[in-house]
Specification:
The chain is mainly beta and 117 residues long. 14% of the residues lie in helices and 37% in strands.
Length: 117
C-alpha cells in the first residue's frame, strides 16, 4: 500500500474513534467533561428570564450551582415558544458545549436544540 491510501485509512480510523459511542444523552453533571464537543445533555430545567430578553435554562441546579446552562440570546428569543412550560421538566439540550465564566454552556439558536423528555 502506498502512503496516500494509508493516510486516508488512518484519517478514517481517527474520525471513527472520535465518533460518539452511543446516542444516549449525557447527564448534566457530566457536561464539563465534554467541553468542546457537540452533544445532547439531559436534566431537569430551571428557567431564568432576564429583563434584557435573555433566557437561561439551567439543568439540575441553578446558576453557578448548576452543572450546565442553555443560553438563549434576546435576538433568538422569538424563535422559542412556550419556554415557561419547560420549568421543572426533564429536557435535553443539544449543541456544542462551550463555557461562559468557566461554566459549561450550550448556546441555543434553534428550537430543535431543545426537547422535552
Amino acid at each position: 500500500m502506498t502512503n496516500a491510501p494509508k493516510q486516508v485509512l488512518l484519517s478514517l480510523a481517527l474520525l471513527l474513534a472520535a465518533w460518539p459511542a452511543s446516542a444516549e444523552p449525557l447527564a448534566a453533571r457530566d457536561a464539563f467533561r465534554h467541553v468542546g464537543e457537540t452533544a445532547q445533555v439531559r436534566g431537569r430545567a430551571t428557567l431564568t428570564f432576564m429583563p434584557s430578553g435573555e433566557v437561561y435554562i439551567d439543568l439540575d441546579g441553578r446558576g453557578d450551582n448548576g452543572p450546565i446552562t442553555g443560553y438563549i440570546s434576546r435576538w433568538n428569543r422569538s424563535k422559542f415558544q412556550n419556554l415557561s412550560s419547560l420549568d421543572g421538566k426533564m429536557i435535553e439540550l443539544s449543541g456544542q458545549i462551550g463555557t461562559f465564566r468557566f461554566q459549561p454552556e450550550i448556546f441555543l439558536q434553534d428550537p430543535a436544540q431543545l426537547k422535552v423528555r
